[in-house]
Amino acid sequence: MSDVLVSVDNVSKKFCRSLKKSLWYGVQDMASEMLGRSGKHELRPDEFWAVKNVSFELKRGECLGLIGHNGAGKTTLLRMLNGLIKPDQGRIEIRGEVGALIALGAGFNPILTGRENIYVNASILGMGKREIDKKIDEIIDFAELGEFIDSPVQNYSSGMQVRLGFAIATALEPDILILDEILAVGDAPFRTKCFNRIESLSSRCAVIFVSHSMPQVTRICDTLLLMQKGAPLRHGHDLGEIILDYHTSTDNADVAASVEGSQHGSIKAIQIHNSHGEATRSLVYGEPWSISASIDLGEETARLDARFMITINDQEETNVAQLEKLIPAPQKLRQFVLSMSYDECLFNSGKYYLTASLQFGKKGTLAYVARNMFVLNVKRDISGYAPIILQQRHEAITPVNGK
Prior knowledge:
Helices cover 24% and strands 34% of the residues. It is of the alpha/beta class and 403 residues long.
């Protein structure tokens, strides 16, 4: 039997922006289908392609990361894979049982208790009552619901719902596991449990994982499919290259800049230069780089000690690095360009946001903060899990006991 569990061949799906036209088009399509006529492939007024010409195969033991910005067509594709909607063009072949968690709380009856919803949802996934009886304690334990398992689901928090949904979807040990942004909710210990469960299942099933968190994607995925406006942009095993395309597929000004502080000084501009001294918004991992800032200290604060600082955040708004320089008062000019050079760029692949600030005096009075003042893209051939990738200068392998 072939190890190919998911086969998607040139699949497309269109929707209509107008409700009235959508209902009328639906009647037309059903009539055409009953008469054995193939549906029209061109768009009608107010229609658009939510998914267009997507093809891939997924084997047992593989994990496909489905990435793309909001509106790229990821959820529509997952719904077709799960059999919730039909494609307008192309063919989808699924071999084996599917466990899917596409939307938070999807399939839960809010009036029923958590225990009752386990029986209902597990039955839909193909489990018999005896099998559910054997696994229910494991499901409740994994979901960490304890005494709340017999409370109505409508009283659950979003974290409790996603824990229960994930526990049910993975308890069946399906051949194909589909997960859509389910790790965006929940605390760190639960996310660790989810990753461990996915890794334990990955050798026996095919996994399709959707997330906007690139560290999560690179942790479990060996193949990526990048979608943009419904169409496949890139597909392959080059995680670093595809993630870089993901980060650069939107305008660099996608996070609004803002200025705060007393305004007794200002940072006019920031520039980053590559190893050739060229101003750029993209760096290559491991190469030398420098950063320069045009600073105006202002008349009132030019005689005080100043501290210039840059905080670097990743796309999840986590502080990953900080650069700073103390400028003693006797050595200062009012207006100048401050440059700082670094031997290596140690940032992982991705997009980073730079916030620049000025502080004055011994108490560190905040005079100027420019949030998200600069957006930086970093390219690395292999994308790792952490935002900073350290590079050793020397390494040694020393035998123990002469062996």
